[in-house]
C-alpha cells in the first residue's frame, strides 16, 4: 500500500510539473496583487512576483491549515479515547464488585434455595383449582 501511495504522489507531482512546464509563459509572468477597501487611503499593492509563487504560497497555506486541522482532530480523538478508557475501567470495577457480591450470595447456605423444576401445563390438562375446605366454604357463602 505504501508503494501505491508513493506512486500516486509521484504521478501527481509529475502532472503538476508538466502543467507548469507547458504553461510556463503564464506561470512566470510577473503580476502585482492589490487590495482596495473602498477608501482611497486604504489601498495596498504587493510587489510584482511571478504567478508560480502565488500558486506555491496558496498550496503551502492550504497544507499548513490541513495539518493544523488534522492535529486538532487527533488530539480531540485522543482525549475522547482517554475518557472512554476511564469509563471502561470504572465499568470493569463495577462488574468485578457486582460479581463478588453475587458470588457471596451464591456461596451463602442461608440464601441457597433448592431449585425446583417448574411444571409446564399442557393445553389439554385440566386447570388446577384450589379447593377450599368445607368449613371455609360455609363461612363465605
UniProtKB/TrEMBL annotation:
Residues 117-129 have a biased composition (Acidic residues). It comes from the Bacteria. Residues 115-141 are annotated as: Disordered. Keywords: Membrane, Transmembrane, Transmembrane helix. The chain crosses the membrane at residues 52-73. This is Lipopolysaccharide assembly protein A domain-containing protein.
